[in-house]
Specification:
It contains 8 helices and 2 strands; from the N terminus they run ααααββαααα. By secondary structure, the chain is mainly alpha-helical.
């Protein structure tokens, strides 16, 4: 399995195995319940499908690292962010949301497997190879897997290899390595502002890096 397939399959499986009551618990995305995050994943899967059938005939303008932009922390004013909870609530029964994610998510996985890795696609005014586009999503899926289970301690963690790949991607985006003694999960949570560093972690990060985080991706 490719890192994209492994990270996406693990995330889809984690959602499929959640009891219905867990959809009302908080997620790791500020202001979103688990159901809101799952609704966002439906939209992400649709984006993958749309991009993979949007060919480009120009040279790539971005790769798996420069696909991401560093942006300001969300303020809650983004119309799409406000729309997601309303869409998620409209599903009512979590089983319907699970079904929709499985349906469109499985299609996105198949499209990724069938796509020519060297083909060029266009999204967000950028042109990337399919390989780079799918590689960028390993970071997305891994972070959202951590968001999904943020308040669900018994839920399965992301695969070890995709945590490592996501960390490597974040370090490339940040332009610096995180201290080796910090585990991959902690690097991803701290580096993207999903939790605050402890005093010990701030010492490990060092003053320069501690002051630069979080790296908010958009």
């Amino acid at each position: 399995m490719t890192p994209f397939s492994r990270s996406w399959t693990a995330l889809l499986t984690a959602v499929a195995d959640l009891p219905g009551e867990d959809f009302e618990r908080p997620s790791g995305c500020k202001g979103w319940l688990v159901r809101d995050l799952v609704c966002h994943l439906v939209i992400d899967a649709q984006d993958v499908l749309i991009t993979l059938v949007t060919p480009a005939d120009t040279e790539p303008t971005a790769d798996a690292t420069t696909y991401w932009n560093l942006v300001d922390p969300p303020t809650g004013d983004d119309p799409l962010d406000a729309l997601i909870p309303r869409l998620a609530a409209a599903y009512g029964d979590p089983a319907l949301l699970k079904f929709h994610l499985d349906d469109v998510g499985s299609a996105a996985a198949r499209a990724a497997e069938l796509a020519d890795p060297a083909a060029r696609v266009s999204t967000q005014d950028k042109v990337l190879t399919v390989t780079d586009y799918l590689s960028a999503y390993v970071l997305e899926w891994t972070l959202h897997h951590l968001d999904l289970i943020a308040h669900l301690p018994s839920a399965p963690q992301p695969p070890t290899e995709t945590l490592a790949a996501a960390r490597a991607a974040l370090e490339k985006i940040a332009g610096t390595a995180f201290p080796g003694e910090l585990p991959d999960t902690d690097v991803l949570l701290l580096g993207t502002g999903r939790r605050t560093a402890t005093a010990e972690e701030r010492i490990a990060l060092g003053g320069g890096l501690a002051e630069r985080i979080p790296f908010v991706l958009g």
